[in-house]
Amino acid sequence: MMNTLMICGLVLLISITTSKVLYKFGVPILLIFIVLGMLFGSDGIVGIYFANYNLTNEICSIALVLIMFYGGFGTNWKVAKPSLKPALLMSTGGVIITTLLTGTFAYFILKVSILEGLLIGAVVSSTDAASVFAILRSQKLNLEGSLASLLEVESGSNDPTAYMITISILTIMSSGAVNGIILIIIKQIIFGVLIGVILAKIAVFVLRNVDFEIRGFDSIFITAIAILAYAVSEWLGGNGYLSVYLAGVIIGNSKIPHKKNLFYYFDGVSWIMQIALFFLLGLLAFPSKFPQVIGISIAISIFLIFIARPAATFLILKPFGYSTREKLFVSWVGLRGAASLVFAIYAMTYGVKIENDIFHIIFFVALFSVAIQGTLIPKLAKKLDLVDNSSPVLKTFNDYTGEMSSKLIELNITKESKWVNKIIMDADIPNEILIVMIKRNDEIIIPKGASIIKEGDILVLSGEGIENLEVV
């Protein structure tokens, strides 16, 4: 027990210290933690033997659930709306095209069976935008136009599609028949959507009407909702990852109390989950097996980077007016990351016969993708002139981490105000505006999400753009 705690503490300390240094040079976070895991693994310096795919599958599934929930929670659909259609087409049609092209390539060129080729294609079809934005933030780069919105929504919503295709192929491999696949897909979608929406609506209702007397219980409550969304959906035959992502989107875009604190909480949880996930995946890998898969892995990586991803990107984005420069960049930043590795482990534990070492193949593909594509992203963004220099820091959609303005203004609420007689959380107040206090007659009121704004109130406001705020 003591040795385990020492190792955990040492891993966290080394991870944070190392990533702090390398992060500034644009080295992807995923690569840092995976390499550390390999150094601690059976073929590494520390030599911890770990080969439990089932345990890794359980832990990584929970980690991916919380990471995906945070991805949905941080997506502002009002900002993302202009890019919504192409992003969703990329996350569905793009995944299907990538699966089919990669599967066909693996079958004809690499001589694997057609089902195993399609399985490899499905597993690597999702992308990891978290790594992309982490790299851009480390270099203080912001993308121009709607590229950030497109990449954020695509990546957040393509994991459920990749998972659904992976499950379908594994089912065919297990039963040997295609019968019932359509029903499985329909159940995945219907229950995935229903469970996510229902639990999210319940969560929003509870958060708005129940006063959690103990500080932090609202965070625990939402964490439970995220895990429950996945578990119930999977139990009913639905797509658990779709449920989790939808729940995150709905809750994150609803007016709920303490949203800023919740954002900080899930940001921290997401980082812990990523560290645990990437380190554990690195620990599970055996670098001594790389020579056996390096040929097929590099072939798949090059095909994905230069043929499959560009083909899907140019075909889908053609009707939406994106320039060639933008389509080239979207093609390049299709990094393979955590979801692909988790789905590979899922395939390993499903109970079907797989001829090739799919985990180490996908592991090497992810390493190759992050190391080559990831490190060149900042240079490519500058080369293609896609950097927005007017914004010094890249922000996600529902980003509550920006500094609040130190300037305060007082705002009189008249009967014509659109905020009058509304509770604060329903008043459609921009996220970047903070109500510091409410002056009502001779009374000073500390505002809460359920506080009612009344005629004659004087609101003390702080935040960005308060001078241009319109409330009439």
TrEMBL record:
Q: Could you tell me which PROSITE patterns the record lists for this protein?
A: RCK_C (PS51202)
**RCK C-terminal domain: which residues?**
395-472
Q: How does it sit in the membrane?
A: Multi-pass membrane protein
Q: Which GO terms describe its cellular component?
A: plasma membrane
Give the subcellular location.
Cell membrane
Q: Which InterPro entries match?
A: Cation/H_exchanger_TM, Na+/solute_symporter_sf, RCK_C, RCK_C_sf
Ranges that cross the membrane? 29-52, 59-77, 89-110, 161-182, 189-208, 220-250, 262-286, 292-317, 329-352, 358-377
Instruction: Specify the superkingdom.
Output: Bacteria
- Recorded GO terms, molecular function? antiporter activity; monoatomic cation transmembrane transporter activity
Pfam families tied to this protein = Na_H_Exchanger (PF00999), TrkA_C (PF02080)
What are the UniProt keywords, alphabetically?
Answer: Antiport, Cell membrane, Ion transport, Membrane, Transmembrane, Transmembrane helix, Transport
Which GO biological process entries does UniProt record here?
potassium ion transport; proton transmembrane transport
NCBIfam families attached to this UniProt entry: PRK05326.1-2 (NF003715), PRK05326.1-3 (NF003716)
Protein name as catalogued: Potassium/proton antiporter
